[in-house]
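Suppose you are handed a protein chain with no further information: no name, no annotation, nothing but its sequence. What can you learn? This example shows the usual starting point.
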Amino acid sequence: MRFDCLTRISLNNLRPLLSLFSADLAIDLGTVNTRVYARGRGIVVNEPSAVALDDRTGEVQAVGKEAKEMLGRTPANIRVVKPLKDGVIADFKVTEKMLNYFIQKAYQRRTLVHPRIVISVPSEITQVEKRAVAESAYRAGAAEVHLVEQAMMAAIGAGLPITEPGGNLVVDIGGGTTDVAVISLSGIVYSRSLRIAGNHMDEAIMNYLKRKYNLLIGDRTAEQIKIKIGSAYALDKPLTMEIKGRGLIEGMPKTVTVDDSEIRDALSECVSTIVSAIRAALERTPPELSADISDRGIVLAGGGALLKHLDKRIREETGLPVCIAEDPLCSVVLGTGEILSNFKLLRKISVE
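A reasonable first move is to predict its three-dimensional structure. Written in C-alpha cells, the prediction is:
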C-alpha cells in the first residue's frame, strides 16, 4: 500500500516533466511573420521571420522583433536575413536557427524539450521544399513533424465546417503566397498557390514611387503606406499620406504627398492576379460545390485580407458574398493549433 502511494506521488511529480517532453506545437512558418501555438496555452510566439547575423563570427545577434528593428540600421558586419521567400525556405541554416529560437522561447528557454510539431506550408510546395521545412524542424529539436496546407488551416481557423459534405472557398493572403482552395469533406477539391501576396504589394508601391517621383523608400515604409492608404476599390473618403524617402536624382532626403488612388493604381496588378485566381477556382469547382459556395460565400484570411475594400472588389468581380475571418492574421496558426488535439484529422490532412 505504501509503495502504491509513493508511486502515485512520484508520478504526480513527474507529470509536469512528462508533459514537457510530449508538449505539442503548431507553427505558421510565414514569409513575414512566424507564429507558434502551444497546446493548452494558445499563441505563445508572434514575431517577424527575421534573423540578425554577425558575418565575422557567424553568431546570431537577434531574432524576430529585435532583428526586424535592425533593418537598414546595422553596421557593415551585421546582416539582417529573412530566411523565407515566397512561403518557402531560402536559407536552410538560418531557418533552423530561427525555429530553434522560437521553439525555445515557446518553452521559456528549456533545452530538453522535444515537441511534436505541426507546420503549415503553401499548397504547391515541392517535395524538396517540404523536406527542407521538416528537416529544419527536426534539427531545431522536434521529435515528430507533420506538414499541413495553409489554406486548410486558414479554413479551420476561420471556423468553416470543413468536415461536412459542402463546398468552402478560402483565400489566404499571406506575406509571400496567396493560397486559394475549395474544401469539402476534410479534403482539398481544388487549390492554387500564387507567389503574389503582401510582400509583392509592398514592392509594387516601392517601384511606383521610384518610377513616378524618383523616390527611394524601404520595405517598412512601403508596408505602412499599404496599411494606411492602400485599397483594392475606390474609398468613400479620399486619403493622403506624406512619404519621406531619398531622392534618386539628388541623393538627398525628399518628401512627397500621395493619395489613395495612386497607391490603388500601384497595387492594381497584384489585386487583379488574386481576383483572377479566385475566378479560376470558381470555374473549376464542381457544380454541387459551387451551389454551396454561392450560399456560404468566400472567406478571406491572412494579413492581405485587411487591404481596404478587397472584400468589396472580390464581391463586385464574382457576384458572391465575401467575408473576412474573425482574426485573419492568426487564422492559419489557430487552425493548425486546433488540429493538435485531433490526431485522426491531422493524419488525414497532412501532406507528407
